[in-house]
Every structure is written in structure tokens, then in C-alpha cells.
């Protein structure tokens, strides 16, 4: 075997805009995983990739090398075609995973969902679930298999054994201003999905004022990269471009979002949340062949929410992930007041009045999330604690008429809402003299692979 090319040579090659061979990319990732690459060298390579880019073949090689940098999951042959997951690029009030994973399990899929924690203004599924007393997110791959056999879905944190290269690279991207690189984002997201050995994946790529990507065009570029590389990995991959100007649903904040997800799992709750859950799930049922069309998949998901089977799976998942059976039952079958008591309530509950009369044009998600972050609902750095009870409930929806002084937002917090925070929240409410016209759809576009799909795993 030839000796590997020295790392400085690889860095120079990418710095000068040349293409890296697959073996060179594998050699770089081995250096990262084994610790032989110096931090400065890794940072330099990340910056070279950020400035010079990578073509689809290089991005695929990087994804594969990262995916196999640690353990990968393995499933029984009988599950072939049925192992699915969803990934979202992050939004405000996005509790889709909490309802979608059990609803998919109720439709016959196996869902080994590996989720993250909130950072900055975006929330994380693991934090939301940890608002439920007893819920554990640190299952080993063996425990995941066991839960999938019994229940069909689990939502867990990333084990340290899976994709160790991503942990190193992601940490360094944060401090080297290389987070916003298309190939690096693609490889980071998909390496974790490839290590999960998925059959099908649906991506919710959000765009707008409170999203990673401000415009539909930039989100489309990421979606296309993810769909192309995912497809080449043998995963049936599709992406939806969805708007993230307003919070999804009416609740923002970890415990409040669990309550809203439970409503969705009972067949009620806000229509935008139900729509996104059923559309994303419908695409997956179609991709894994359980339905002939995405629309039929959407209808099947809706039935699972309406007939209690999704809620039953959620209760079983809670039990399998450490929640005492009585708590899981009371949470799933209880009244809203019992549920709130189980999850714990913030000390202060304050309603904000509308400053004037008008029609709600929109409620902007970003200022809302920023203020809640300051009140303790979010974290600025990985590992910071969060207050799971802090949050807000929207009391109005787009297109609704408000009288001056009518409450429009209920803020749950445990300190003081500053005058500046109050002002920022009031600025989030956009009122107009007439009802808004031609509201754009939540799901703007669906991105499917352009070429034929390879056999899924
Ligand atoms: N989520 C990931 O898993 N990786 C990334 O690079 C980003 C979000 I940005």
C-alpha cells in the first residue's frame, strides 16, 4: 500500500482549489479520528474546504469516511426498507419529531431517531423530552435495537461511539468560522444518518427570518446537496423546504412544546404542526414503499394521530426510555391541567396585551425565541443548563382580529421580564389594518432525487 499523502500536502491541494481523491479524504478523516492530525491542521483544512468548496463526489467521500469513523448501527434483515428518520435544520417551536416518530412507528416503520439539544435560538428535541420526569436519552445501540423491536421508535442522544469524526470537526467549525460550508454541513448531517443505516430519510430544510438559511434559494442549495449525497449513500432521501418566519404551532419552550405535541398525538393541536407532521411522514411512507403516493402516506399518518395508535406508541416509548408507567399513562391520558402539573410550571405566567387594534399579519419567531433564550429557555454554549419550564404560548393566530389591550401572548418565566424584553416581544407582533391576503404555504417546495434511486439498505 502507498504511504498516505502528508496532511500539509492535502491542505495545500485544497487551498489551491484542487480536487481531493477519495483516499486522501479518508486519510484526513483518519487523522481527525485517531488524533494524529493537529488542531491547526484540521482548522486549516476546514477553512480550505469552506473557501474552495467540494464537488458532490468529494462530499460523498467525506460523508462516507466520517460515517465509518466509529460504530455503525445494524438492524435485522426483516426491517430492510423500513428504517426511517427525519432531520430538521432547526426552528422555533419545532416539536415535529415528538409526534412524528411514534406516528411512523404506528404505521409500521422502525424509527431510530438520534436527536440533538437546543443551541442559540433553536430548540432541541432531547431538551423537550427531558421535561418529562424520568425520560432518558442515553441508550446504547443495543438498547436502541431492543426498544425498536418492542415499540418501533426511540428518540435518543448521539452515542459517543457513533461518528466520532463529526464531534471533532463540528467543535472546530464553531471556532474557525466554517459552520456555513455546504459540503461540511452535508457531510455532518448525513454521516450521522448513514451510521444509523437508514432506508429512508426526509429532511425539513427551513428558510426565513428564524432559520439557518434566510432565503428559499439558499435552503434549496443545501436541500439539493443533502438529497444528492443521501441518495448516493443508498438512502431514499427527500427534502421539504419549509417557512420559518413564525413559530411552528402556538407553544415555544421545552415543557410547553411537549404539551402541544401531546395534543397533536391526540388528533388535535395547531393545524400547521399537524400538517408538517403528516406531510413529512407521508413522504417517508411513500419512500419506504408502505404507500404508493406521498398523499396516501399523509392520510395514513393523519389516521394514526386520530385513532390513538400514535399516542399509544408515544406512551410505550416513554416507558421504554425510563419514564415510570404511571407517569407515562397520566401524561398521555390526563387532562391538560394534570399534564402541566406533571411537567412542572414556571413561577410566573404573564399575559401581554395588544398595543393597538388590528389584524394579525404574523408573529415573528426570532424576537420571541431571543427573549425566551434570555429568560433561560435556551443555551448559548453546548452544556449550559436550560430551564425547561420557561416558554410562551401564542394566544392568537395569523389572520385573527385583535382589540387593543386583548392578550396575545402568555409568557411563562421565573424571573423578571425586562422593559427591553417586553418591547422586543411586542415588536414580534405584526398588526395591520386589514386581514392578511395570500398567505404563503408552510411547505414551499419538495426536493426529490433527480436520478434513479439506488437500492436502499
Ligand atoms: N446539524 C448538524 O448535524 N451538522 C451541522 O453541520 C449543522 C447542523 I449547521
| Major β-sheet strand ordering | 1-4-5-13
Any idea of the CATH class of the largest domain?
Alpha Beta
The percent of residues in helical segments reads: 40-55%
CATH H-level superfamily of the largest domain: Nucleoside phosphorylase/phosphoribosyltransferase catalytic domain
What is the total tally of β strands? 13
Distance separating the two termini: 30 Å
Low-confidence stretches: 452-457
Provide mean pLDDT, rounded: 95
* Fraction in beta strands: 5-15%
- Identify every distinct bound molecule in the structure, by name, code or SMILES: 5-iodouracil
Number of domains: 3
Identify the CATH architecture of the largest domain. Answer: 3-Layer(aba) Sandwich
Largest sheet: 4 strands, mixed
For the CA atoms, what is the radius of gyration?
22 Å
Q: Can you characterise this structure?
A:
There is one protein chain. The protein is built from 18 helices and 13 strands. The protein has 457 residues and is an alpha/beta fold. The protein folds into three domains: 7-53, Transferase, Pyrimidine Nucleoside Phosphorylase, Chain C (Transferase, Pyrimidine Nucleoside Phosphorylase, Chain A, domain 3, Up-down Bundle), CATH 1.20.970.10; 77-331 and 443-447, Pyrimidine Nucleoside Phosphorylase, Chain A, domain 2, CATH 3.40.1030.10; 347-432, Alpha-Beta Complex (Aldehyde Oxidoreductase, domain 3). The strands form four sheets. A four-stranded mixed β-sheet has the order 1-4-5-13, with helices on both faces. Strand 4, helix 10 and strand 5 form a beta-alpha-beta unit. The site of 5-iodouracil has 4 residues, from helix 9.
